[in-house]
Amino acid sequence: MLFSSISFLFYFLPAVLALYFLAPKAGKNMVLLAASLFFYWWGEPKYVFLMLFTIAFAYVCGLLIGRFRGGKGGKWFLALSIAGELALLGWFKYAGFFADTVNGVLGGTLPALHIALPIGISFYTFQTLSYTIDVYRGTVKPQRSPVKLAAYIALFPQLIAGPIVRYSDVEGALTDRRTGLDDLSAGLTRFVVGLSKKVLIANQLGAFAVSLRGCGEDSVLLYWLLAVSFTLQIYFDFSGYSDMAIGLGRVFGFRFQENFRYPLTAESITDFWRRWHISLSGWFRDYVYIPLGGSRRGWARQLRNIFIVWMLTGLWHGAAWTFVLWGLYFAVFLMLEKLWLQRYLNRAPGALRHGYLLLTVTVSFAIFNANGLSGMVGDLAGMLGLSGGPLLSEKTLYYLSGNAVLLVLAAVGATPLPGRLWTRWTERAAGRKIALVVQPLGLLALLIVCTAYLVDGSFNPFLYFRF
Question: Does the pLDDT value for residue 103 go beyond 80?
């Protein structure tokens, strides 16, 4: 079940809200857990049992780690937890990729594995890992209520598309939380804004890219438009889903961390990854990079650690060599910035720094979005003018002219400018009074327009099936 679906918006969510706010305080976690399991079952009936097993495994391991923490037993149960969680993730997500790679490289005869990927397995696996690791570190206490731990891991607002919520961020809220009118208003506002980003901008950019792919042209401009449109699409899609998750979390009394902070306005790759998918980059920093030694043991170790983290980051996004190369591509630029490039960027004009960031990121998402290694080579060759096609073509210009307004709106919407203008306007007394009427009407209008697109059966892809 997708947030951007009629069944979620007008059946599931209203029913859950009614049950949740009618339930006594002691029953609210149970309502959320039941709703979350139903939400997951709707799209993955058989894999809901895999998630329940994962929850039970994390629960038992957490108790055992807490019981024997400080001794060898604690280390052994932590190792069991990590190995078990990663074994499940590895089997369902990477076994087929490994078999295909071995057969392709070594000419082996391993049987082809066609294993369906459980939606959201990378997200909830990382959440359970952070829980057991934090219990071992002593930063959180083992959760003795299976309902509370299950509600945390399976919580439907962030279950299938993040952000990756750490147990330490919601530990208190699982026991005591309240939703005031301000929370309800702010949460629903954030949800509608996120829904609009997904349906009205990301989906339209995706439809534009599909049209470009199918138009039969191979101009240089077409390949660049494909890369730019996908970069904007995945930003609005992913940040839109994060907005919806954060908004729903607030409605139910949780405060999730921000996952995006206008990453396309960054001026270096280092800064970009402080702003893009913040929960993932923070997870790898705290649970992989720093335990490996971080930057504390000399340049050679630091560069090795960056390489490892970004190879794993690429694999986390998908079981394909294009994702591995995408991660290593960022590793190279991060290494270069650490070694010497950042010094020159700091002295360069802002426009040059920003141009470097946009160019680097756009090329990265051409790699990310490619259809296999051959497709990646073809797309990059096309962007460099090596595919034999013309620089421009009439058909490409036709598609560009028909979607120019969409691209401009997306580019402006990816900056803080709209929010700053709204803030400045509402800081004035007259603006605040008008906003009291305009904002709810505007949100209602956005919801109606989004609903119209969804009822019409418009293009509505789910980009996170690989995660």
Answer: no
* Side chain identity at residue 382, one-letter code: G
d(CA 415, CA 433): 26
Degrees to nearest 5, angle at CA 250 with 33 and 245: 70
Beta-carbon contacts of 51 under 8 Å, excluding residues fewer than 6 positions away, are: 40, 118, 124, 153, 154
Question: What's the pLDDT score for residue 337?
Answer: 94
d(C-alpha 335, C-alpha 67), whole Å: 41
Please name the amino acid found at residue 276. Answer: W
CA–CA dist 32, 42 (Å, integer):
15
Q: Residue holding tokens 């829904």?
A: 195
pLDDT at 467: 65
Amino acid at residue number 72: K
Calpha distance 425→190 (Å, rounded) = 19
Q: How is 44-61 classified by DSSP, letter by letter?
A: -TTTHHHHHHHHHHHHHH
Q: What pLDDT band is residue 426 in, cutting at 50, 70 and 90?
A: confident
Please report, as a single letter, which amino acid is at residue 68.
F
Q: How many residues does the chain have?
A: 467
Question: What average pLDDT score do residues 401-421 get?
Answer: 94
The radius of gyration of the chain's CA atoms, rounded to the nearest angstrom, is: 23
Torsion 183-185-186-187 (CA) sign: positive
C-beta of residue 33 within 8 angstroms of C-beta of residue 150: yes
Judge if the upstream peptide bond of residue 163 is cis by omega within 30 degrees of 0: yes
CB of 140 closer than 8 Å to CB of 100: no
pTM, two decimals, is 0.93
pLDDT tens-digit readout, 292-327: 998 888 888 999 999 999 999 999 999 899 999 999
d(C-alpha 414, C-alpha 416), whole Å: 7
354 is catalytic: no
b/e string for 183-204 if b means 16 or more Cβ within 10 A? beeebbbbbbbbbbbbbbbbbb
- 335 is written with which tokens? 């290494």
Token match 């995945």: residue?
234
